[in-house]
Amino acid sequence: MCEAESAASRTIICRCEDVTLEDLRHLLERGYTSPDELKRVSRCGMGPCQGKTCRELVVAEIARYLSKDPGDVALPTFRPPTKPVKLGLIAGGCSHEK
Amino acid sequence: MRSRASVVIIGAGAVGSSIAYNLARMGARDVVVVEKKFVAWGSTGRCAAGVREQWGTEINCLLSKRSLGILENLEEELEYSGDIEFKQKGYLILAYTEREWEQFKKNVSLQNSLGIPSQCITPEEAHSIVPILNTEGLLGATFCSTDGHCNPFRVTVAYAEAAQRLGVEITSHTSVTGLIMKGDRVAGVRTDKGDIEADTVICTAGPYSQLIGEMAGVSLPNYAERHQILVTEPVEPLQGPMVISFSRRFYCQQTPHGGFIMGMGDPNEPKSYNIGQSWQFLEETTRVACDILPPLKDLSLVRQWSGLYDMTPDSQPVLGQVPGVRSLFIASGFSGHGLMLAPVTGILLAEMVLGMPASTDVSMLDVGRFERGELVMEPSVV
Lengths: 98, 382
Fold this sequence. Notes:
The structure holds 2 protein chains of 2 kinds.
Chain A: H1 3-10, E1 12-14, E2 19-20, H2 21-29, H3 35-42, H4 55-66, E3 85-86, H5 87-95
Antiparallel strand pairs in A: 1-2
Chain B: E1 4-10, H1 14-25, E2 31-34, H2 43-46, E3 50-51, H3 58-72, H4 74-77, E4 91-95, H5 98-113, E5 118-121, H6 123-129, E6 140-144, E7 148-149, H7 152-165, E8 169-171, E9 176-182, E10 185-191, E11 194-203, H8 209-215, E12 223-232, E13 242-245, E14 250-254, E15 260-264, H9 279-292, E16 300-311, E17 318-321, E18 328-332, H10 338-353, H11 369-372
Parallel strand pairs in B: 1-2, 1-11, 2-8, 4-13, 11-18
Antiparallel strand pairs in B: 3-7, 4-6, 5-6, 9-10, 10-11, 12-15, 12-16, 13-14, 14-15, 17-18
Helix pairs in contact in B: 1-7, 1-10, 3-10
């Protein structure tokens, strides 16, 4: 393993799901070149941080691979909620209306 | 993109990918899959990832039993290097009303007669299988230990990549805009990237099948219905089986990854292609979840999304030739169960298209049954 490959295998892109830069590059080479596709095959961005940490890193890596401007890479679909909320809080929130 | 194919499959969800692989495996050449977005984008990639054999009709029991058998060895069969996360921790189906308890007893006796190891159990037994279950109001439950989970993306990608290795072309980000008709025969598809002539066209477009039908001038019975779903943060294993209640329209399972996936059907959901989310869904679902499985109240919601059930009037798929349109086949209308029936559907459709004898008789699931009034009602759907 050359030094760059070794560094890529040690560079974590998605810390919630343990996806490394090396994993990401392998998937790009297999043809998964949009954030939504990468999310489905690697779980990248599906953890408790909701992709807030890795989103820009993934987009930057896709842009580099496709020789595009990062601004031209479609972002992954944003899903509610904006921040994780406990189920009991949401469920409890409905009862005081009664 | 090829301009000529023996078979064009419309839609690269679990069903389309499985048919493509099985066609190629059985010797078909020049198979092309046309996909509007990408592999597993639609209903497959949005589903709750459950697989079960506990059904209320004989044909669903038979098809799901074969599918589970295929899933058990799928990674080897498809030479998939990843993990499809196939887990057999069972499905626990809760009975809260006398009416459903009576139906469940009939279902279990049917399932047992077909070799499916389901059983009727008491609320106490249910509690010992799922210790976090609140048994208040529970009359009984059915449990089948071989039911379970698989990862929808991975299963579909495994089929799609295996199909590609056998020479199938999967054309992503390409929309079918029309069908090439020659008299009463379909002779190919028109796409936004050009035409593809074909001897046979198979519609596996899920909830969008009705739109494909319109292109051939036929009215298919399918309609789209949004179903919402949510997932929590991953935690240590708390719940082995999928827990379902039909009368409370609720299901919930903990995936092997650790997150809890759950959803509820809404009886007032209109027919539409809406795949947005609502806050009402969160309120209703979390309330039922915290009641049936109280410890879930402390888990954080990470994400909510929705997908389309591809419904038919009897909640059963439509499989086979489209009446009045030669060379057009359909495998859709799975009504929320396409992923779990995809493995066997791939084999059955490949047999039909290649003119081979059917390994399971699915003639009762043809498109024409609705006109004939011969519906095969499935009672066990959330």
